[in-house]
Structures are given as structure tokens and as C-alpha cells.
Amino acid sequence: MFISIYQKLDKAWQRIEIFITVLILSAMTFVTFIYTMLNNLYTPFYSLADWISGDEPSKLEDFLLDTGDMMMDLASSMNWSNRFTAACFAWLIFFCMSYGVRIGGHIGVDALVKVFHKKIQRTLAYIGLGACLLYGGIMLIASLDWVYNFYKLGTLAEDLDRFGIRRWHITIIVPIGFTLLILRYLEVGYKIFTHQQDMLGLADEAKDALDEIANAEHVELANSIQQGVK
Question: How far is CA 148 from the centre of its chain?
Fold first, then answer.
């Protein structure tokens, strides 16, 4: 009963996880795009105004200059965009740590581990799992104290203070990220305990590289056969 409820909640969380990740990436991309465009749009208006300028100012020249001024003012008013994208990037890193565990995206150096018997692999996996949980627990406790100090001080975030954003609003993602990381590693521990897997399920870059080489050789061989047939 509990496992069934957990699986349903986990599927729902996976969708929320992907939605939040896409939302953060979209916000970063949108703000960066607008800021970059505004920083590059006012120059053509000034250049065009200089090109059509004459002895007496015209309405078109005034319009172009006013438009250029407006673009420059808008770009200047978005000087917060760099801090915003940096905050979004920090959120993306810490929020996606648990996502990397779920999809096996973290790099694993386990070439030696694979040489051993399954039982030894499982023992080493438990040791590695314990190290990961210990690291996550230490970072969770430390980050909670860190965020709580920011909360008590009420320090405003640099360049984002105009929106009322405080430092703890940004740094709160650190304990959230490590909490999610611990939950994912507990899930990995359950899978190892129930013999669903024998290792931590980390990314195998050596295997991926060998598969890529094999695929490239297969494509090259197929192309050679086709050329020989022709």
C-alpha cells in the first residue's frame, strides 16, 4: 500500500521536477534575450538618425533619437538581469542534483567496482551510499544554519532588492536541493536492498564512449558496403 502511494507521488513529483526545471531555464533565456536585444537595438536608431540628419532637425530624426533613448533607458533599467540569471543558475544547479541521481546523470568512477562479484559490488555500493548520505546530511545542516542567518539579518539581494527579494529567498534552494538529494539516495538504497540494482546507478562515461565508437564504426562499415555495392 505504502509503495503504491509512494510510486504515484514520485510520478507526480517527476512531472513537477521537469516543469520547474523548464520554467527556470525559460526565465533565464527570456530575461537574457530581452536584455541583449535592448542593449543592441538603440544603436541602429542613433545611426539612422545621424544618417538622415540635416541642417534642420526633422520629426523623423527626433522620433529615431527618442526611440533610441527609450531603448537605452530600458536597457539601463534591466541592470538586475545578470543577478537574476545568476540566481536562476544557482537554483538550477541545486534543484537538479536529485534529478541527476534519478536519471543516473552524475559521473561515476566505478571501473574497478565492476571487476568484483555482485555481493562485493553491493557492499561497495552501500559504502558509497553511506558517504553520499553523510555528505548530504552535513551540507543540509550547514545550509539550514546559513539560510537561517540570512533570514534573521533580512539582507536584501544585490540588484534584486527593488523587487523585495532577500538573500534567503535565493539561498533557500540549497537546503531544499540537499533534502531532495537525500531522498533520492534513500530511494537508491531501497533499490539496492531489494536487489533491483547492485550499484549506485551513476553515469558510465567509459561505456558511453565505447558505445559511441562502436556506433561510429558500424556507420562507417555500412557506408563502405554501400559504396562497394554501387
Answer: 24
* CB contact at 8 A, 42 and 68: yes
Please say whether the beta carbons of 204 and 110 come within 8 A: yes
The count of other CB atoms within 10 Å of the CB of residue 171 is 22
pLDDT top residue among 172 and 98: 172
Rounded to 10 degrees, what is the CA torsion of 222, 227, 229, 230? 150
Question: What is the radius of gyration, based on Cα positions, of the chain?
Answer: 27
- Please write the tens of the pLDDT for every residue from 59-113: 777 788 888 888 888 888 888 999 999 999 999 999 988 888 887 655 665 656 6
Give the separation between CA 204 and CA 113, rounded to whole angstroms: 12
- Give how far the C-alpha of residue 55 lies from the chain's centroid of Cα atoms, to the nearest Å: 55
Residue 216: all three cell numbers together: 561510429
pTM higher than 0.90: no
Alpha carbons 190 and 126: distance in angstroms, whole number: 11
